[in-house]
Predict the 3D structure of the following.
Amino acid sequence: MAFLEIRDLSVEYKTGKDTIRAVNGVSLDIEKGEILAVAGESGCGKSTLAKSIMLLQPVKSGKIIFEGQDILQQKNLKDFRKKVQMIFQNPYSSLDPKMKIIDTLREPLKINTDFSKDKTDEIVKDIISKTGLQEECLNLYPHEFSGGQRQRIAIARALVLQPEFILADEPVSALDVSIQAQIINLLKELKEHYNLTFLFISHDLSVIKYLADRVAVMYLGEILEIGKKEEIFYDARHPYTKALLASVPSVNREKKTLLKGDLPSLSPSGCPFHPRCPECRQICREKHPNQVKISDTHFVSCYCE
Ligand SMILES: Nc1ncnc2c1ncn2[C@@H]1O[C@H](COP(=O)(O)OP(=O)(O)O)[C@@H](O)[C@H]1O
Ligand SMILES: [Mg+2]
């Protein structure tokens, strides 16, 4: 049993006459203590996947099994809500502008625990220093901080309840590149210190290359390829993964644009990637490929294998 098991998860949005399959039959396992990154272009369903795991988005079908229990069937979610926290892309919108940082950080403890005020404040002070901020910050408001500092505060807020699992949705994408590295390093340190498990969402493969243990490549709501970081970066099998890698300057020095056109919002028949695939064959247009095993940890959904 893995720490988190997602089984055949589907989430749909209805817009007018169209149904967008934002998450389409996703299955994956996350082991305790690992960082699983989800990569893919904007609009491929990464945020919807994270929101559905956080129970912020209704699910059409499938299972989300956390520590052996299907949370979609469970009535008492108190334990789950303490153990699973999310960090969002934009720290400003996830912090209440009218609340001092100390109150923002006290709030989850007030709601979820019966700790005394002293104990609460002890935890708050400890966590703010662990995220690299001074205690004086606690009496300030969100607008008094830079973007990077605000993301440190949002990280502190996610950690006050001592969660085990963090869903991080593009947590550095809104920050300057120089600040991104600091926040990524902070997440790495905190992961080691608290033995955290991460689902780390990013469209930025250079960030993923630095941070992830395993990588899932998502396209039109589906996982096209999943494997250990080395398997994805040095032995990619799916034409989409190869195209994504070829477009990253730090991964591939001769920047090539293999990826033509934009991500459509509706899935075509056959392989979801076939209309943009440089290796498309007749069968790719007609029949959805099955997942092929490359190694015990590396799987790809493509007829090329
Ligand atoms: N609230 C919504 N209503 C309708 N469509 C949505 C909504 N949120 C996301 N979508 C659509 O679902 C797909 C996946 O979106 P999202 O999960 O935000 O992708 P990502 O995080 O990878 O950019 C996209 O086609 C997007 O336009
Ligand atoms: Mg998103």
Summary: The radius of gyration is 20 Å. The chain has a mean pLDDT of 93. DSSP finds eleven helices and twelve strands in the chain.
